[in-house]
Amino acid sequence: MNGRTLILLRHAKSDWSVASSDIDRPLAKRGRRQAPEAGRWLAANIGDIGLAVVSPATRARSTWDLVAAELDVRPPPRIDERVYEASGDELLAVVGDLPDDVETAILVGHNPGLEDLIDSLTGESTRMTTSALAVLTIPGSWRTAAPHAATLRTSGRPPGWRVTSPCTRRGSSTTRTPGSAGIPRVSPPAPPGGRKP
Fold first, then answer.
1. What pTM did the predictor assign?
2. Which sequence spans correspond to the domains of the chain?
């Protein structure tokens, strides 16, 4: 096996007008529109996903439900208490605990932890807006995931524009088709294929 595919998904837009605890805050109408777009992008661009690790927050679980409904094959979800309010280092520990038999996994969580995890794993600073996706390749096993060891293949919010050169390390440029916004469309390998939280 050449490596693993890690997909990071920030929850969709939540509703701050609702009087509830942070963990129970629901999705806003905009969030309920955003999340299926992420699912359709995954269905079109990524092979089978072996596992979904989801924050226990209502907004994260609702996001995953809407995303999973767009997939041809729904991966089994695992609610992991560690993902809620996790730092980048804490999320790295979650990644390291992923099962060996899973080749592609998706982690549904929050900022700033997701952005910090991408920065740690790839050396790239990436903005993760609500419903944004990031697709990383991790060489070797999940247990060997380490700072600056991964490659960021694409990131952004779907539906997206195309990237015409591979994602590169911080300080280098990527050529993109102008005139549209969102996540670049990539051809994934054959399977394995302040900030508000």
1. 0.82
2. 1-54+63-73+97-102+113-153+165-171
